[in-house]
Amino acid sequence: MKDTTVENQLRYLYTLQQIDTQLKEVNELKGDLPAIVEELETKVENYKSEVKILNATLKQLKIDRDKADVEILSLAEKIDRYKNQQLNVKSNKQYDALTREIEAAEKKSLQIEKDMESYEGKMETTKRDLEAINEQLQKAINELSERKEELRSVNKEHEKEELKLKHEREKILVRLDKNYIERYERIRKAKGGLAVVPIKRDACGGCFSRVPPQKILEIRQNSKLYSCEHCGRILVSNHIVGTSPEV
Ligand SMILES: [Zn+2]
Question: Over the Cα atoms of the chain, what is R_g?
């Protein structure tokens, strides 16, 4: 079963690397989305509770405003009544007492008018805040539904793709020398998932360090496993890259 010529082993290693890179990409794609969806769900919940709080605030401000409105009207009636009474008083003392009542009522009315203005100002601000938050909420809801859909389809896609890649991986593994597999896995783990790289423009395709010309010539022989002197990744010739086996 095993094709033990180094050249073919190198081909299998390079193919294994490609499969693992694809698996990593698929996993990364899937790995991000659940977190994004969860984050958006929290965002939507937060916006919703903010909207709830702002609506309650607005409701209370309206009640306060209406109450102030009624008070101002009743104070105005009171003032009218006092003024009418002043027309019929018998003494200066009574007249002055009513004047004091009128002044007190007017003062109170002015204060309540100020309060009312402040309620109305706050209502305007709250309405604007509500509008802004509602807009953000709607945006978050839309994004959430998009991302959820994306996650569903990635999951679906991912299942098939992952199975296919894992199957291909198994087929490669049975053809590979155990020592090569161990070496490959060790480098892959240490080097962010990239263990086998081609030579690109006389440099290592992993760390981009220059590969000496003599070594490039040797690598082109495809008769031995060569590692990059700088990063330790397995270097393969363009010939290997171009003729990787179908699995
Ligand atoms: Zn390197």
Answer: 40
Distance 214 CA to ligand 1 centre (A): 16
Domains in the chain with CATH codes: 22-173 (1.10.287.1490), 178-242 (no CATH)
Among residues 199, 191, 211, the alpha carbon closest in space to that of 241 is found at: 199
- Alpha carbon distance 16, 28 (integer Å): 18
- Both structure tokens of 225: 């496993």
- What's the 247 CA to ligand 1 centre distance in angstroms? 27
User: What is the tens place of the pLDDT at every residue in 60-101?
Assistant: 999 999 999 999 999 999 999 999 999 999 999 999 999 999
> Looking at the DSSP assignment, which residues form a beta bridge with residue 210?
203
Copy the structure tokens of residue 143: 């994004």
Q: Is the ipTM of this structure higher than 0.90?
A: yes
- Residues 197, 235 contacting (CB under 8 angstroms): yes
Q: What pLDDT digit, counting tens, does each position of 102-136 carry?
A: 999 999 999 999 999 999 999 999 999 999 999 99
